[in-house]
Structure formats: C-alpha cells, structure tokens
Design brief:
single chain; 5 helices
C-alpha cells in the first residue's frame, strides 16, 4: 500500500509540475497537491492584500517526496519539497521583502529568507493531514530535518493542549 501510494504521488507530482492553477482545477487533486495549493493560495492572498498587486497565474514547479520518518510519531511522517511560481500582473508593484526572488520572465518564486517550504504530512488510514511547514534554510543548520520535525510536533502538541 505504501509503495503504491508513493508511486501515485510521484506520478501526480510529475503531472502537476508546471501546471497552472486553471489546469489543476480541471481534474481531481490528491491531498498532497491540495495542501500545496492551500499554501500557494495563502501566499497569493497575502501578496494581494496590497491592492496594487494582482497575481494572474500560478504554478507548481516541484512537489516531491523527500523523506519519510517512521519513528517520530504514531503514524509515518512524510516531508515534501514544494516549489512554485506566481505571476504578478506588474512585478514592479510587488514589495520584494524577506528574501523573495523572481525569474527572468517575471515569475515570483517560493523562495524566502528561510528558504523554500517543506510540507510535513502524516496519514491516518486514508486521511492525509498537513502537520505544518518547515523551511529548507532551517533544516540545513540546527540539527537537520528530524530536529525541525520534532520541534514542529512539539509546538503542535502545545497548541492542541491550549485548546
């Protein structure tokens, strides 16, 4: 089952690479892709909170399973690399803050001062859950990906304890 799921996710990631949001809306998305689009759409919403900014297109350029951790929680935890691009109507209207970057064609990339997002996901039966996001810049220094995931799980447990 686990291998079959990973194959399906890999195929979907290949199919979605370079697809625009409009193309993505035309067929059923898997949970991992849904989580990726939630993050992308949140970023678009944040950028468009400036009335001068309008994002006219968006695409996932990479959604790839990087690693699976079987012993950190009750269920396996998977970490996915997420890379995407956003096309503003007028790049000059975007405030380039926090390590933001763009390519030669005017597409904003996912890169920030903390690096690129990594989706931390677990599965409970057939249900996938986005545990949170860690950043590539964080995992290269202070003890690696496993430490960042442990910290994320600890923060999540504390937050759930407050509710």
């Amino acid at each position: 089952m686990k291998i079959r799921l990973m194959i399906v996710i890999s195929i979907l990631a290949l199919l979605t690479a370079g697809c625009s949001q409009a193309a993505m809306d035309s067929y059923e998305k898997d949970p991992i892709t849904n989580f990726a689009w939630e993050i992308i759409n949140s970023n678009i919403e944040n950028l468009e909170s400036n009335p001068a900014v309008k994002i006219i297109d968006s695409k996932i350029t990479r959604l790839e399973l990087l690693e699976t951790f079987d012993a950190l929680a009750d269920n396996p935890i998977q970490v996915y690399a997420l890379e995407y691009s956003l096309l503003p109507k007028d790049l000059s209207k975007v405030v380039m803050a926090g390590g933001m970057s763009y390519d030669g064609e005017g597409w904003l990339t996912e890169t920030a001062s903390m690096g690129s997002p990594l989706l931390v996901i677990t599965h409970r039966g057939d249900e996938a859950e986005l545990m949170g996001i860690i950043w590539t810049g964080e995992v290269t220094g202070k003890g690696g990906m496993e430490k960042e995931i442990r910290d994320l799980l600890e923060r999540k447990a504390q937050h759930e304890g407050e509710d």
